[in-house]
Write a structure and sequence with these properties.
Radius of gyration of chain B: 20 Å
Order of helices and strands of chain A: HHHHHHHHHH
Structural class of chain B: alpha/beta
Strand content of chain A: under 5%
Shape of chain A: elongated
Largest sheet of chain B: 6 strands, mixed
Order of helices and strands of chain B: HEEEHEEHEHHHHEHEHEEHH
Number of strands of chain A: 0
Number of helices of chain A: 10
Structural class of chain A: mainly alpha
Number of helices of chain B: 11
Distance between the termini of chain B: 67 Å
Distance between the termini of chain A: 30 Å
Strand order of the largest sheet of chain B: 6-7-8-3-9-10
Strand content of chain B: 15-25%
Oligomer: heterodimer
Largest sheet of chain A: none
Helix content of chain B: 25-40%
Largest interface: A-B, 27 and 40 residues
Number of strands of chain B: 10
Shape of chain B: globular
Amino acid sequence: MTGSARALARGVWGSRSGRLGAVLSGLVVVAAAVSLVWTPYDPTRVDPAASWAPVGTAHWFGADRLGRDLFSQVLVGARTTLVVAVAATAIAAVVGVGLALLATLPPRLVAEGVAHLVDVLLAFPVLLLAMVLAAVYGGSRWTAIVAIGVGAGIGLGRVTRGEARRVLGADYVLAARAAGAGTGRIVRRHVLANIAPTVWVQLSLILGLSVLTEAALSYLGFGTAAPTPSWGRMLSELQPYLTLRPLTLLWPGLAVVLTVLGFNLLGDGLREAGDPRLRERPAEREGRT
Amino acid sequence: MTAVREQAGGDATAVGPLFEAEGLGRSYRLPRTSPFGPPGVRHAVHDVTLRLADGAALGIVGESGSGKSTLVRLLLGLDRPDAGTVRYRGRPVVPGRPRALRWFRREVQVVFQDPAGSLDPRMTVGAAVAEPLACLGVPGDHRERVDEVLRAVDLDPDVRGRYPHEFSGGQRQRIAIARALAPRPRVLVGDEPVSALDVAVRAQILDLLGQLAQRHRLGLVLVSHDVGVVARLCDQIAVMRDGTLVEQGATDAVLSRPAHPYTQALLAAVPRLPPP
């Protein structure tokens, strides 16, 4: 298992998009990790003397109107973003793959029912779901995570169902049944392995999407609550000064863009590395003796 | 006393065919043609009765759409017949929980038509060949057995860690045959096992199947649209058309004196090169 994980990592690093994605995603992880032990300033400390401090040695990214250090806020914001994105994506993976299997494995009537239910739920916007949850339970990081995870999971289920059906109809599944494999083994060894490339790519898109959605929710005031720094809230707080201090908006904006890009590229790399057919094959060897 | 019991036990296996199908039928529902009309029904397999003696080779010929693949699924207990029964060693083969059919699957294995489709692209050759061993709980060293069957189909055991896409069609079909042989079956069912291969490779795979059948005293059920393929390996032949068997008998007899007009037409359709 660790051996195959290492091979996968090597494969990701081997592709150009995978490498760039790994570097960008790694940067976010490092930023989040560093923020746990060190930030130049307390990101929530108000310092009137530093109001709109310029970019420089004292404040690397400058400071906002209240004199809060922007670099420290971006660092801590990376942590918020990462927690929400990873947790939401994990929920999406479970919900999505679970729904896809529920919509393919059971007897036809049940499976089609689930599939239609997914189609109906798909029409419900994620942002609206998040707002409803926030209205009922109060806006917090967790309502954002659940809303993004469930919403994206339904979309993932829709996409994955087609894949799962294709795999279940394949001759190798019939061959596995003729070899005595039960449904559990077929799902574990054949279905999950063969839908994995699609799921990986989708999850990497969802990872990026949840960064964006979290920013949007925080921007609208439904996400991360007030004092905790988040990229979305930084954007909404700085927005009124867009024409006066455009540079200050660059930092959280750039952070969001690079993170989304990094996650998507990483997903591409994972897909290539995880599929034996796309992996660069060693020179054709003769298998016959 | 003991002698009597032994004799009875011996008789139980000797009397009656090893593998038999009786009055087998399977139909599919077609979409309604009019909103209130009855749904159409297609009899993919209708009243098919077959017998295979231990170590014998039975060929089933018919054109595409004649219900051969449905018949194979029924024989293998992968699909439930609407009518009739499949019996192996006198025990009914009823599709159900995989564990309940272990005894049957250990002895009856299958090779499908398209090796590109019948091998999981994300499973190594070794894992694929070991799959029936793991699923059927076959005792013994699986790794050793995998090497053994790979060698039996003329493949280097070192191919274990490689993936199906790295092989040619003929090599893939050898892998599929190795997988079928792994649990030491008594009967090998081939569903168009050479149709997806080019002509030169086809002959090699057929020879391999013939050798293996002889060496391991395997019973063969070979399904094909190609009379030549079946005639090469099978001593018994059954001709299938629109889900029913129209003619059945010893290969020589059927080929030299075809009784049914369809068999005659089928034989006439075999392309022949003029003698040089």
